Amino acid sequence: MQTKNSSSIINHQSPIPTVLKACAIAFWLWGLSGSMAAQAEDVDLKVGVVQRFGSEPTDELILKATPGDRLSLRFLAGNMQPKTLETDQVTLEVAMQPLSQPLLAEHLVLSDHATFETAEDAANQWRSQGIQVEVVQPERWQVWAKRDVYQTPLLRRLLLQSLQAQGNNTVRLESQVLPQVPRISFVVDGYRYSRQWIEIDSENDLIQVTRGEDKRNPRLYAGSLKIQPNAYGTYTLVNDVPLETYLRGVVPHEIGPGAPYAAVEAQTIIARTYALRNLRRFTADNYQICADTHCQVYRGLTGTVPTADRAIAKTQGLVLTYDNELVDALYSSTSGGVTAPFSDSWNGSERPYLKAVVDSPKPIWDLSNKPLGNEQNLREFINLKEGFNESGRSPFRWRIENSLEQIQADLQRYLKKIKHPLAEFTTIQQMQVVKRSPAGRILKLNVQTDKGVVELHKNEVRSAFYPPRSTLFYLEPIYGADKTLKGYAYVGGGFGHGVGLSQYGSYNLANLGWAGEKILTFYYPGTQVQPLNDSIVFWQEPGNKK
């Protein structure tokens, strides 16, 4: 799931065909308005299962029909007429196509972010200044000046100069002159084709996909596939799949195949809600959600389990709502004993149902009298190990020591990635938590270097340093015999952002006899489980809420 990164329990401008663009826009408006009369089982999702195909010249995808079936490949022929080929198997490769004239590939980067949620909040702030933008994910999440608005080099440079004149020195123009571009190359019946768009389906709606570097682990996808350009000069393999079928490839990989049944039901409802709430994440790339931990882990029909299938069937169409809107269905592996409000991890408006909840079935800590923003309270809380839903789980409590040399290397790597002005520092002199939330999460950590102070906020702390599994930790300096600083120990709890449902916590509540709906209302106070219907709003921009 998004920004859990590896914290679930089981561990990118090309023209779009007019019809496809119209369909995408219709679906986008449909999702935002909530004016939906279909049931959840009728919703088809567009999932990017291979996101940046062609980023390496050796990239390869092998698509294969199931026994007794055939693949149908549809694309535009050289005369721009539709063409269909049939084959048992096809290998998609990358071939560089020389251009008659070099192509200027250019975009204006307004800001960089670790997560979609914070990038979306930044995009809304840019829009409030009258700048049209789009959220993209070439690697980290970024906000770009909208390419189909700022279409020419002149418009992009005028905007850049205007922003720089206002004192914004982080905005940058990224330009590249391309003498050649990648194309998808494949051979059928002895003839080699080179195309940008290919639609692939089969009579049985089952296609096996094997990545070149992973030939022993093919994945089976239901529905159809499409290889299409993205916003970054490479390609995305998109799976068009019904929602309820999609869940079969999500639930067992997120909650774990051996989870107790009520926890599986809770995960199923929240995963369905998450998918429908997040249809806008990859609008810039003409699909909806991804298949990794930046969204939810999705592995097609590979690894399905009967328990998850039963929960999907039993909860069919059920979603979690607050005030008749789908909730922001965030969840993580392990809370560390207390869940976090939305703003502990991301920028943006608070979600009333994402608040600090002590992750225990009984009163064990009073946050109102002993808030975890107080450092001493936080240390006392971390030293508690029993009585929580996650007690006994290895991610629940941890202490990880790291040398100063490794901490410096981690921070330098991160600062270079985000193009920070202090990326060339040499030594770290001190690290200090200067601000915490009442739920104990680090909101600001200062790192004193020989070049100046680096401020890290919220989830940046996890991005900048390798060891912390969450932002619920305190620092212990490690000194050598000569009294000099040798490193730090990270002492904390939890795995992931800690917002919303704790997957391991749900295990314990299920084992105590709690039903799936009760588990969800525990982690998302004030919410309601209800069938998807035409009055439920999928998502609204904060400024448009009624």
Question: What features would you describe in this structure?
Answer:
This protein is an alpha+beta fold and 546 residues long. It has helices at 18-33, 116-128, 153-165, 243-248, 251-255, 261-277, 306-314, 375-382, 404-417, 460-464, 503-511, 516-523; strands at 44-53, 60-65, 71-76, 82-87, 89-113, 133-136, 141-145, 172-188, 191-195, 198-202, 206-211, 219-222, 224-229, 235-242, 289-290, 318-322, 325-326, 331-332, 398-403, 428-436, 442-449, 452-457, 473-479, 485-492, 501-502, 528-531. Helix 6 (261-277) crosses helix 7 (306-314) and helix 6 (261-277) runs antiparallel to helix 11 (503-511). The longest helix has 17 residues, at 261-277.
Q: Notable features of this structure?
A:
546 residues, alpha+beta, seven-stranded mixed β-sheet, 26 strands, 32% strand, disordered N terminus
Summarize the structure.
This protein is of the alpha+beta class.
Q: Span from first to last CA?
A: 29 Å
**How many strands, which pairing sense, and closed or not: the largest β-sheet?**
8 strands, antiparallel
- Regions with little confidence, pLDDT below 50 for 5+ residues: 2-6, 11-38
- How many helices? The count is 12
What proportion of the residues is helical, as a percent range? 10-25%
Kindly report the average pLDDT value.
91
List the helices and strands and how they pair.
Layout: H1 18-33, E1 44-53, E2 60-65, E3 71-76, E4 82-87, E5 89-113, H2 116-128, E6 133-136, E7 141-145, H3 153-165, E8 172-188, E9 191-195, E10 198-202, E11 206-211, E12 219-222, E13 224-229, E14 235-242, H4 243-248, H5 251-255, H6 261-277, E15 289-290, H7 306-314, E16 318-322, E17 325-326, E18 331-332, H8 375-382, E19 398-403, H9 404-417, E20 428-436, E21 442-449, E22 452-457, H10 460-464, E23 473-479, E24 485-492, E25 501-502, H11 503-511, H12 516-523, E26 528-531
Parallel strand pairs: 1-15, 18-25
Antiparallel strand pairs: 1-14, 2-5, 2-11, 3-4, 3-10, 5-7, 5-8, 6-7, 8-9, 10-13, 11-12, 13-14, 16-17, 16-26, 19-24, 20-21, 21-22, 23-24
